[in-house]
TrEMBL record:
Keywords: FAD, Flavoprotein. This is FAD-dependent oxidoreductase. It comes from Pseudoroseicyclus tamaricis. The keyword Flavoprotein applies. Residues 20-128 form the FAD/NAD(P)-binding domain. Residues 337-405 form the Flavocytochrome c sulphide dehydrogenase flavin-binding domain. One of its GO terms (molecular function) is flavin adenine dinucleotide binding.
Amino acid sequence: MAVATAPFALRPVAAQEAGRIVVVGGGFGGGTVARLLAGAGHDVTLVEKNARFSTCPFSNTVLGGLNPMEAITFSLDGIAATGARIVQGEAVGVDGQSLMLASGEALPFDRLVLSPGIDLRFDAISGYDEAAAEIMPHAWKAGPQTELLRSQLEAMPDGGTVAICPPANPFRCPPGPYERASLIAHYLKAEKPNSKILILDAKDGFSKRDLFEEAWATLYPGMIEWVPFSLGGNVTSVDPAAMTITTDFDSYEVDVANIIPPQRAAAIAQAVGVADETGWCPVDGVTFESTLMPGIHVLGDASLAGAMPKSGFSANAQGKVVAAAIDAMLRGEDPQSPKYINTCYSLAGPDYGFTVAGTYEVTGGEIVSIDGTGGTSPLGAGEDVHAAEADYARAWYETVTRQIWG
């Protein structure tokens, strides 16, 4: 099935109004900004570390055996076809009005857009560093870590225990760890039915909890155990050599450990000075211009976007707003105050989906929820409803990835 989406394009810019825009990050936010501004005739350079972009949305379907990695990995050629220059490299700082790359190249800009995603705080859990992540993968950046975790699940014996350890808020994709538990359970139920999933959580609640727990009881009874913060779920240390995880109250020996540590905005945001003491980047809600560094826009997971969650849908919506705001500024016009939508789909199984949605407006420069809007899928829905929601999730993903990278 298809999901109807309103077309979004900027009107062609006159030569004297065109600006030089450098965008860091070719994902849901940065890819959207680059495509729209280049398509309108602006001089756009997109900097991305990787030749191909693997999406965190739908990476859990790879872990659950529903998709290969190729299904969530995209070329940047579609963005290049709009006229954007693609530079594969690592942004390391800003010198005046130029973005500096690790290669030494300087990219001059009139406006800089940072959509760099997250960095993992390897200092937050004792024993968990980048070396440990090669044994206890986080898989919170899609790519090799996703493949590593999938291979560990395939190698695990029937009857083994998989631990998933989510951090406290805020972090990328709040429902993601629980969708991950669901889709791993789907794989284990079919291939290793005597296995167990243990969720050791640094929180006492999580997004769509009632819907997830209803799905677990229906699809995977007795397979998934959630241990909240108040009952000792908070992970304090790990020992990769012994495959043990220690919490405030207990210690667990497991076969596969998915440790998702706390996060912050990616290193380039820290280096440029757009991140505050929280590790995230405060922005103006209308333009996503940094409140710390004028002329630099920060969007997606790296930003502090008020009530909007850190999700691919949010980043794509923010990308459209940022592109329109920059285009207006370069034309000498005032950006319009936007309204935002976020819809977060979760799959508990191939034919079992549900949704949380929200709408937002800007008040006093802050993004706030609009009262009386949004909500979640109903509890107690029938199989046909959940199957339709799973179709909606796949259709959204197909539509948005085609719009950005197609």
